[in-house]
Design a protein that fits this description.
single chain; 459 residues; alpha/beta; Aspartate Aminotransferase, domain 1; Aspartate Aminotransferase, domain 2; 7-stranded mixed beta sheet; 18 helices
Length: 459
């Protein structure tokens, strides 16, 4: 019998939540049901998803920034089909693959000065692990400093530089010698660096969890301090790079020249996992500095031709369609329109972002009745009001969003970078309507608050 993927999907469509409950993660399946996200999606195209009933949803998660070019971009899809038709001898391993060299060449063209050596890996956390490993070897120092609220991955290595207790709890002991400092606190950073044992200071130029943006002088001064004390300065651009923040690299907003940059997510065009570390040649040479060390660090699926082809096609599309410029222009328009809602809705405390990463932060209302309801939610679990907003956006407006991190009242927007005026209008109208409804305790926003409190207390 010939295997047919289409037939298998048709026969089993709708079984996914049962299968996940039985074999994968029943708790995640339960979460989706509680918040009303248990949809059965059957198609994705551009910035939208469709469920089995043909209902369309605007996707403002974009696979956590995997789909910067939208889902099923025809040029990336064509490149994948062309690659499969070529029967390329991929993963020979004892060779130097052409497509890896070509993608490395294209990436280096887009880097700040001095970044001209490339290592390909598979995921963002994989790339960050590599950067930490290389920094420690190159400097012969053991420690790594990171920021509070940082998110660099969930492997055992990257957990040690994760600024969220919710992710770290129960997995200790982690990589020893790491140190956490607060964003914008240059004195605290210098105290750490002055000890002379810090291999690297790693930062997301804009933090993904919470969409926290540093003061204008913080990152340039942090880079200067790293140079002074011989510490590698690493910019983690896994989520914020590749046009997300309105520049090819987010660190370009501050004219930074880091020692290493990590990229992943949308580099694979939404089709293939791929990540990369781009670094100064002297770092690379210290790690691989002899014939005997030529394979001292590697990963089986690094440099696989399908991922390299996807990366080349992605960069081509970004250039041809001026994706970075589009992110900056549309993002500025969306940010301005959402910021204007602060004047109308007292519960919107802040709207911040660059390009098409935007955080909307909420605060307690002044009305006594609403404040009491807010307090009850927060007592059960911090951030539950924002979960109500996220649920309302999905239920009433068919917009897929997320809470910006554990224990925060922030909605994070990561739309595909291909959105335009139509989507901007949809997003602004939806938030306006949800916040209007949130003024009324008997409205739809607060309707599921008791159930959320119950579930939070049970957990």
């Amino acid at each position: 019998m010939v295997f047919s993927l289409a037939q298998l999907i048709e026969e089993r469509q709708g079984d996914q939540y049962l299968l996940h409950e039985q074999y994968i993660n029943p708790y995640m399946a339960r979460v989706q049901r509680i918040i009303g996200f248990d949809k059965i999606y059957t198609r994705g195209e551009g910035a939208y998803l469709w469920d089995k009933d043909g209902i369309r949803y605007l996707d403002l998660l974009a696979g956590y920034s995997v789909f910067n070019l939208g889902r099923g971009h025809p040029a990336i899809k064509q490149a994948m089909m062309e690659f499969l038709s070529l029967d390329r001898p991929t993963l020979v391993k004892m060779d130097c693959p052409l497509l890896a060299g070509l993608l490395a060449e294209e990436l280096v063209k887009r880097m700040p000065p001095g970044l001209d050596a490339v290592f390909f890996a598979n995921s963002g956390a994989d790339a960050v692990d590599t950067a930490i490993k290389f920094a420690r070897y190159a400097t012969k120092r053991p420690r790594v400093v990171y920021l509070n609220h940082a998110f660099h991955g969930l492997t055992l290595g990257t957990l040690a530089i994760n600024g969220g207790d919710a992710f770290r709890k129960g997995f200790e002991p982690l990589l020893p010698g790491t140190g956490m400092v607060e964003m914008n606190d240059l004195e605290a950073l210098e105290r750490e660096l002055r000890q002379g044992d810090v291999a690297a200071f790693i930062v997301e130029p804009i933090q993904g969890k919470g969409v926290y943006i540093p003061a204008d002088d913080y990152l340039p001064e942090a880079q200067r301090l790293c140079r002074r004390y011989g510490t590698q300065f690493i910019c983690d651009e896994v989520q914020m790079g590749l046009g997300r923040a309105g520049k090819f690299l987010c660190c370009e907003h501050w004219n930074l020249e880091p020692d290493m940059v990590t990229l992943a997510k949308s580099l694979g065009g939404g089709y293939v996992p791929v990540s990369v570390v781009i670094m100064r040649r002297e770092i690379h040479d210290k790690v691989f500095g002899s014939l005997k060390r030529a394979q001292v660090h590697s990963t089986t699926f690094g440099q696989n031709d399908m991922a390299m082809a996807a990366g080349l096609a992605t960069l081509h599309v970004m250039d041809e369609e001026k994706i970075v410029e589009r992110s900056a222009t549309v993002g500025a328009k969306l940010l301005a329109r959402l910021s204007a809602l602060k004047e109308k809705h007292e519960m919107i405390a802040d709207v911040r972002g660059k390009g098409l990463v935007i955080g909307i932060e909420f605060r307690p209302p002044s009305s006594l009745a609403l404040k009491a309801a807010w307090t009850a939610l927060e007592a059960a679990e911090k951030g539950l009001f924002t979960q109500l907003v996220v649920m309302s956006l999905m239920r009433d407006h068919r917009i897929l969003t997320q809470v910006g991190g554990p224990g925060v009242n922030i909605v994070k927007l990561l739309p595909p970078l291909i959105i335009g005026d139509e989507e901007v209008e949809m997003i602004v109208k939806a938030f306006d309507a949800v916040m209007d409804d949130a003024r009324n305790l008997k409205g739809r926003v607060w309707a599921t608050s008791a159930e959320l409190i119950k579930q939070a207390m049970a957990a």
